[in-house]
Amino acid sequence: MKRDERSIRVLLIEDNPGDALLVEEYLEEYILRPDLKHVERFQKAKPLITDGNENYDIILLDLTLPDISKEQLIENIKHLAVEYPVVILTGYSDLEFAVKSLSMGVSDYLVKDTISSLVLYKSVLYSIERHRFIRSLRESEKRYMDLFQLSPAPMWVYDPETNAILDVNEAAINHYGYSKEEFLGMTQSALCVKDSNEDAAEKIEALGSASDRTIQSHRKKNGTIINVEIINNYIYFKACKRVIVLATDVTEKLAHLEAIELQNKQLREIAWMQSHVVRAPVSRLMGIIDLMKTGELDMAEKEQMLDFIFSSAEELDEIIRDISAKSEEAFSDLNKEK
Fold it and tell me: CATH number of the domain at 152-249, out of 2.40.170.20, 1.10.10.60, 3.30.40.10, 3.30.450.20?
């Protein structure tokens, strides 16, 4: 049988030398190089556990030790199990207490009279991997909390089934004006202003947003209505599938885009006037001038032509004034937004 070649560091806290020897033999049967440290008393184990230079993969702990009561041991296990996987070694008389210790964070318990080398090996491996997984989850949750709370953008987590808000970061509290308690008493939909998102598709297109984003109108605590770009993603929050929301206030951005669109519309009107409306009186003027160049007109006809020229000049002057007024209005609206 090929033994496990990994170096596994084990701290065994066991006051019975016979049981300690048996554990060592069992480990050596399946592990090529078990690094076993054995102590008989819990007080001797404490400095080894708290010493930063000692890094054990697992602790095997006898539930009945002469220097500590079961109740005190359980209290200590709470702290031990945070840093290390702990496997309880117990007798039949301690079985009920051993089962209870699972709620304290213990990875597993083994009844001494039923332990075999394979059972011990499997328990050690399972406990180590389970502890690594739990620690990874804790670290992942801590990273989530750091990113969540330190984010400059408003964020919150809600239950997709009930819409109830479950958590909210400081940025959302500061931006919306609601306290954390008020947020946690609200639903996701309670933030939205009804019948205000009919043009959401146009707003998303104007912003160049992806299809998984939406624009919603939200009401702050002071009554102010804001346009918010919402990005939703699923996460596991407290072991359940939830939705995390990233909200970006785009009120000013949309207002600026609307002002630019209005200006573009006005500029298009100006361009049309220049290319169509101005051309009519100019064409008339050019025709009259060509007619007068022939010199075949009598005085009455020349007088009439001069009246036509004056009328066309007045029309052209009015059109130019209208163009100037529209140009000033367009640039004035844009400057107001700036």
Answer: 3.30.450.20
